[in-house]
Amino acid sequence: MNSSPHAHAPFRFPPLRAGLLTFAVLASVSCGPSDPVARVASRLSAVESARPFTLPDQTLVSHTGDPFNVRTATAGRLTLLFLGYTYCPDVCTRQMATANAVLGQLTEAERNRAMVLFVTVDPERDTPDRLAEWMEGMRAPAVGVRGSRAELEELLAGMGFAMPPVTSREPIEGGGPHAYLVPHPSSLFLVMPDGRGRFEYPYASTRPAEVAADLRTLMALDWPGAPESPSMAGVVVPGGLHEVSESTLGRTVAGVITIRDAHIPADPRARTLPVYAEIDNAGADDALVGFLTDIAEVGRVEAMVEQDGASSMQTTSELGLPTGTTLSLLPGQRQGSLRELLEVPSEGDTVEVIFLFESGAEIPVRVPVVDPDSRGPGA
Q: Nearest-5° angle of CA 344, CA 349, CA 350?
């Protein structure tokens, strides 16, 4: 079984992430001999938490304004839980995008037995309107909850966590006036159908495909008292996943956005890999902001820039996609860039790449790896 003796110890991130400290754990929950997880724990990619917790019987308010009891509303399903805040500069958005990508890899029946829960640790700034706007931007079946500072501290205490104080409200460099840091765990927690948080997925090492495989393994267990298909009563989830109406190799039609002719040129010696595609937008103005994939740690967008008579491909924060236009990711113009490769795919392989948009849309595409001289599948 995987273990992490420092899972809840203070952890220092690089300068931009300083202050995102994991919570101190004050209590633990023991597991009895009839524990169904023991039979499969060694097969999970998740890290075993040093001090498990149990979700308390406490009611807060969801981002839709409805009462949400964190124990009863999650009972009978596997829950990916994240404790964070909407003004977080990087970790929170990345972990929530990962959690939502996991749901996108499950079947409809499997999604009925799982959910994503976001609890804000910054209720003063994460007002009801702010939380609702942020969660709706995720465009996924996730629930965000908030409460007063006292209610939050009661919830965390019931889970065995102690919340460190915010030591500084000075904005971080380049983050805007609202982007000061709030201590919170960077891990995505996995809560069992019986309400126990047993495992976690550390930041920057979470792979959606591995998490989805873990959920399927755990769903196959016989959970005493858990319904075969848990009701969503008490769980109000707007929208749903960004609906995929068509998905074939190299092409995905998702709502108002169509991604076509996606491909990655094969290069066995690559340290980074480009992603090319044509992206049509029939909806409101949007922008391509990045990528998620199991084969790389980082997925950026790049554009050709001319400076002092020389041209070079440089990282940019976004590639604009106004309504009614097509964004072409083509060699020598614009591209996705997969960096810090974990594996190098070969020609003929297929890589799942999730295209991330400013609107919050996360669109998975099965991208073929093709001969460098080929443009890949036709539109």
A: 105
Indicate the domain borders of the chain.
Answer: 15-219, 244-370
Lookup: tokens for 1: 């079984």
The verdict on pTM exceeding 0.85 is no
SS3 call for 374? coil
Q: What is the mean pLDDT of each run of 10 residues along the chain (379 residues)?
A: 31 30 41 66 88 90 92 91 86 84 83 91 91 78 89 88 62 54 86 92 82 91 54 36 58 81 94 95 85 92 86 90 91 94 93 88 89 60
User: C-alpha distances in angstroms, 75 versus 45, 144, 229?
Assistant: 23, 16, 11
Fold classification of 15-219 (topology level): Glutaredoxin (3.40.30)
Total residues found in the chain within this entry: 379
Look at strands 78-84 and 114-120 and give their pairing. Answer: parallel
Q: How far apart are CA 34 and CA 351, in angstroms?
A: 40
Q: Is 55 helix (H, G, I), strand (E, B) or coil?
A: coil
Give the list of residues 6+ apart from residue 30 with CB closer than 8 angstroms, or none: none
- Tell me the C-alpha distance between 361 and 347, whole Å: 29
What CATH architecture is 244-370?
A: Sandwich (2.60)
> What does the H/E/C string look like for 91-132?
HHHHHHHHHHHHHHCCCHHHHCCEEEEEEECCCCCCCHHHHH
